[in-house]
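yo

u said u wanted the structure for the complex thing, so here. seqs first:
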Amino acid sequence: MAPEPPLLTMSGITKSFPGVRALDGVDLDVQAGEVHCLLGQNGAGKSTLIKVLAGAHQPDDGTITWQGEPVTLKSPIAAMRLGIATIYQELDLVEGLSVAENVHLGHEPTAAGFVVRGKASRASTAALLKRLGHPEVDPARLVGDLSAAQRQIVSMARALSHDVRLIVMDEPSAALDPDEVDNLFRIVGDLTAAGVAVVYISHRLEEIRRIGDRVTVLKDGRAVAGGLPAKSTPTRDVVALMTGRNVEYVFPDRPLAPAAGTTPVLQVRGLARDGEFEAFDLEVRPGEIVGLAGLVGSGRSEILETIYGARKPSAGQVSVDGRTLRPGSVRAAVRAGLGLAPEERKAQALLMLESVTRNVSVSSMSRFARVGWIDRGAEFRAARAATRELSLRPDNPAVPVRTLSGGNQQKAVLARWLLRGCRVLLLDEPTRGVDVGARAELYAVVRRLADEGLAVLLVSSEVPEVLGLADRVLVLREGRVVHTAPARELDEHRVLDLVLEGSPVASAGSPTGSGGPATGAGRPATRADRSATGSDRSATGSDRPVAGEGSQAS
Amino acid sequence: MTQPVSPPRGADKVTPVSEPPAWRALAFRADVRTLSLLGVLAVLILIGGVTRPDEFLDTRNLQLVLTQASVIGVVTVGMTFVITSGGIDLSVGAIVALSSVWATTVATQEFGFAGILFTAVIVGVGCGLVNGLLIAYGGIVPFIATLAMLASARGLALQITDGSTQVVTVDSILGLGERDAYVLGIPPLVLVFAFVTITGWLVLNRTTFGRRTVAVGGNAEAARLAGIDVRRQRLYLYLLSGLCCGIAAFLLIVLSGSGQNTNGNLYELDAIAAAIIGGTMLSGGRGTITGSVLGVLIFTTITNLFALNNLQTDVQQIAKGAIIVAAVLVQRRTANTT
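structre next:
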């Protein structure tokens, strides 16, 4: 494009973490004075890439060229010295220090080795804040007392307090209201006019259209498109590049006759938590997979965790086989036959220091114990049987669970509940952090478990996953069920309509599907005629609407 | 360690791996740690044998070292459990003091041997119960709750004794410390220590209680979501630590023939230090009774060596500090190599 050499060129950047290849030969070039947008779903590698750029991660392979010179960014300080500043999504401010102290953190103005606290620092901070359009922020105030938007400004002031040539902004608009976003864009405009380059990460395509010059799309650790024109590339092309799901969305066949006649194993009535979700009703039968679709913040995970007893409901009840569970008790839920594969596998499910065996047996220990004494042989054999059933690899449950890939770690969690003999499996984002190839296998495992009589409740932020795997789908918006239908009567477009805006169905009839006790076939799919045929087992999603990226937001 | 992306069908034909290298490395590392601790102990014994051949290797001296190790050793076993669960118990020394003075009041001594033993254990367990309830159900962080117990128990111990030493007059208690009571040359206190150690090892490594302890320390949220009653487990752990303090207090009464409010001074630091150099992770999730006991033996031997060589306690303290730092640095290096 531009005749002069790019300000920054990253080529062939590769970075692996135990169990996952986060970046696989990514190329990125940034010109001075442009806004270069970085797009991609969660887990596509955006965060890792900008951490490499910030000097926080060292790449395993690849080269970085800065103004024509090859450089290594050994540390965040090295990156800062070159003029690369990063504004992280989780703002890295010290709440107990003042605005001015935060802005100058790490490069405090000093005199004879002592930090100068005083006028000079506050004055330069005030000047920066004024330049950023927020002169009302007092440099002497504690950051802990500021609003989210003000903290963002402080973070930006800190970046600008260096002699900066390139600013990386990781979803800067996420915490801002529209006025503040306008101000942000004005600042970005000022910066680029002054020749500073901006790498801008956002899920919101309309923002990228407004301020972006070029777009690089990441997917599964690769740059699937580099340097596309931000304003003229058709939205559906961008979305197709981001999702590009041809491989991973291969779903197992559904049984032809859903388990209609059998009595539900899981019944949820009027479950609610103040401020999170209200009046949630649900029945799941053995052999049935029910999906919850909705945006982040729609209450999906909260509902799942409340059913499981990990959160205490403010109203309503959960019963398994007709027996009501004690509210807010995980132990009662587990005893009754519930099992949860939580969203954050490493933080909420796995004992990372332990072997696969112990991770699998942890919920069924007493079965291998006599007066507390564990029969380790029986434990190992049972764990091996459970992991073999799910073809977990390597086929040796004695290995530490942290050496497993994401998909196999998820299988270890499933094996835990399989061994426990659970009746209802609650899956929260079951394929997060799971390799493309391993996803199909996980889908097959879940379907097989359902065929064997398990009831499954599935939550996923990826609409095709819910539509492809579930038999029946509940669409959630702001804590309420707005639609219930068999999965084959819905398509992605329709779900996204329901999730994002008011839907024709919801505004015409009763506002929610939660009024009565019936959930299943109670609501006829009024627009089933326009939905895709049920036989389409591999969604390609190329007709995804502009609103589509909303489902990736998190 | 990424799996090669293979079609789902390929899952059927995986040859079972009999001994994966990762598991081997782990077992090897555990052995290396134990061996290196044993090596340090051997070096210390060698130093003792060279510098003070007559005094150090004397049977009486070795009996003395082991007896001294017994009191702090029993406390350390309890501490190892607490640290493995991700907690800390700063009150162990104070609980030992309180138990020892409560069990040696004139009133208690009237009930003889059983009265003293029972009181020591019950006071220890009672303090542990308070710790456990505050931490597990009151939501107070272990550091603060046990710090408060440290202060209160010491204060109560001082109140009971009014600063005086309570001499034990029960003959059966004093008799336990005499040479006549030794079993095959082993003092009964050491036998108690051995019993507590073996029981502790079995409980930590072979029982559901031990597993739950490790699970709570490794990832409390995961343990909770796996159906473990994390709070009850925490309560039990501080009870266990209190129980160990009660037993240690009894051993101390036998050893010193008295109860004093200054007993157990800085036991919390010695016990934590012994557990840490033994290989128990302060952040929880991994604990080793073997390592802790070796840590105790190393510290006690050093104290003995310094005393025999007429070196002052200040030098001992400096040496201890250096050993703690060295041990942790070595551990970090071995941990990083995997």
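Chain B touches chain A through 39 residues (CB under 8 Å). Residues 1-21 of chain B have pLDDT under 50 and may be disordered.
cya
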